[in-house]
Amino acid sequence: MGRGGDAAPAAGRAAGVEPFVRGAAWPAGAGVSYPRANPDDIARLPIDTWGAAQLPVGVRLELTGDATAIELDFRTETDDVGYRGEGAGKFFTVVRDDAVVDEQPAALGAGSVRLSVAGPGDRAIVYLPEGMKPTLDAIRAVDGSIEPAPAQPRWLCYGDSIAEGWIAAGPAGAWPAVAGRVFGLDVVNLGYAGSARGEIVSAEHIAGVAAEVISISHGTNCWTRIQHSTGQMRENLRSFLTIVRAGHPGIPIVVCSPVIRPDAETTPNSLGATLDDLRAVIEEVAREHIDAGDTRMSLVLGAPVIDAVHLADGVHPGDEGHRMIAAAFGAAVREALDTDSLDTNA
Asked: How far apart are CA 25 and CA 109, in angstroms?
């Protein structure tokens, strides 16, 4: 199946590396090697969305073969990873069979790194030092050969900082990354920290990228940052889902309402909405679409998924919380995809 960004390597991305790259839905543009929003459309994006989209969150290499190691040539743009610290990604991390088999630090600027890829499982996944804004220039096999791993179903995962991975210990621990490994999905991480308020331009971007399944999990930044009333949230989400569905008329869409946030649950914002109010609206709108006949839309209730103890800073989950979210949301995405496949083949 053809996919946006897969047809040919973009300027600034090495042709020899490109077949191994996963999680990159758009070609390079606007000075960004692996943009997570359409770089041709940045004039319409909120500045905080584009700021987050410049980080290659979830972009990774996936390979198979009998090589014991690989060498990567790379360039990084910064070592200032901000609030997230090293959890934003300052290491190359190799995961096989959901276990870390090697991890090496990235240098600032141009550099090379050797990574062991030997280990259990058929597929080696190399997570990037995404907080340093890397570009990969070359990949070489050591003591054997490598080839791109077989394609898996593409999953567009829209959300906020929790989807982006805040504040897991590293990119491999973000719940979409964990779910992608566990459930065999090619996740494209569209988590935008501080943003993801259901902007229509993001809906249009999602609608324009080929995929096999989509999840939508935002809401907390509609309580704060750009505050929403319940009425505003309702109409905006209706429009967002309508646009996404128009672009993907036949594939599963999984709506996941926000996980718990203690400071926001019962505290009204300036427009009188608590996070619990906004969560109820999200669930109501998803049910409206389902009841109106959208049999390929499903809903996951976010509030019961984790407890406050799993929030490492009171807002974002730590590693255990991310794994719990991956188990709940990721399983729902996989189930929706499998159910859709059964229905299609019936």
From this structure: 25
